[in-house]
Amino acid sequence: MIDLHCHLLPGLDDGPLTWEESLEMARTAAKQGVRAIVATPHHANGRYDNPSAEVKESVGRLNRALLENRIPLTVYPGQEIRIYPNLLDDLEQGKLLPLGESRYLLLELPDEWSLSALMDLFYELKLMGYVPVIAHPERHLTLVRNSSLMAEFVEFGAIGQVTSHSLLGKYGNAIRRCALHMCREGMIHLLSSDAHRPRIRGYEMDAAYRTIEREVGSEFAQTLRENSRKALRNEPLGAARHLKKQRKAWFI
């Protein structure tokens, strides 16, 4: 397995506090069959700023520690980028990191946003050669209340990334139902852990994939696995389930 969204680097955000915690998370991931992780610390979210150079330095140090401790895992640099006004300028200047140096850019929606402004941003990113990946749309209040908006983003070329704890009900039943609805309706292309600490929002990728297999189907679960590999190799993703014409769906 490949995990494209994980807070694995210590001391950069609300992820692990120490290198020992990072290594503990890495061991757990490896035991669950994860062989590559994109470390995605929060960036520009009003609380944390993690410029690309600092992320790359921390990733290099962690990879050396993984080798020394014989943990069969490779870590790649990335960021979970909260959408902000200067995003495009900073991207052009090399201050932002796509997932593992691919063209896939992990974006977190702000609490409040304009649909037209988001579409303009996605359009500009496409012109620059990037693919917007929307992190945990199933947890954004606006999309939970009206998931058809996520379908509009997908129709416009965005990618949906669901996270493990949502599928496992760790954020409540409404979020779980929204996550499964988005999976079934063709709005989700990737599954990632969004793990933060060894025992707080920890690693449960294997359980999340079992949930997908049981609730949506083994074929879709395999597509998600393959898409993670393709994204890291900077390849086009396989089709998610057919995007269905949406009616408004409220989960809370």
From TrEMBL:
Gene Ontology molecular functions: manganese ion binding; protein tyrosine phosphatase activity
Q: Give the enzyme class.
A: hydrolase
EC number(s) recorded for this UniProt protein: 3.1.3.48
Q: Does the keyword Zinc apply?
A: no
Ranges that cross the membrane: none
Superkingdom: Bacteria
Q: Which UniProt keywords apply?
A: Hydrolase, Protein phosphatase
Q: Which InterPro entries match?
A: Caps_polysacc_synth_CpsB/CapC (IPR016667), Pol/histidinol_Pase-like (IPR016195)
Catalyzes what? O-phospho-L-tyrosyl-[protein] + H2O = L-tyrosyl-[protein] + phosphate
Q: Which family does it belong to?
A: Belongs to the metallo-dependent hydrolases superfamily. CpsB/CapC family.
- Indicate what this protein is called per its UniProt record: Tyrosine-protein phosphatase
Organism expressing this protein natively: Cohnella xylanilytica
